[in-house]
Amino acid sequence: MEYQYHDERIKASCESDRWLARNLGPSGQKNMDRRINEIEAATNIVELLEAPTWHVLDGRDGGARRGRIAGKLTGRYRLILSAPEGGVSGLVVTVEILDIEDYHKQ
């Protein structure tokens, strides 16, 4: 699959080893590389979601994240994706990287 960044801020964060190591630790930095490789290796969104590190968000937060896709980076932090045009179906071959987020905090 292909991916694009939502904006320059998230691109800079995802591509900066220093930022990742400082904010997510060495394991989070390594997992970011793994998640990006998983996106690139998948042929479509359904294939990506077969990996145990990815899941579709169900909107427990009141619906704000419903339908977005989360990839585990650390125990709390996730790489948040949006599948533009078509939602989560086998037809989606491009995703947008929206954020690195701890959506577990209240």
Automatic annotation (TrEMBL):
Q: Which InterPro entries match?
A: RelE/ParE_toxin_dom_sf
Tell me where on the tree of life, at the top rank, the source sits: Bacteria
> What is the protein's given name?
Plasmid maintenance system killer protein
Q: Which organism is it from?
A: Rhodococcus erythropolis (Arthrobacter picolinophilus)
Q: What is the taxonomic lineage of the source species?
A: Bacteria, Bacillati, Actinomycetota, Actinomycetes, Mycobacteriales
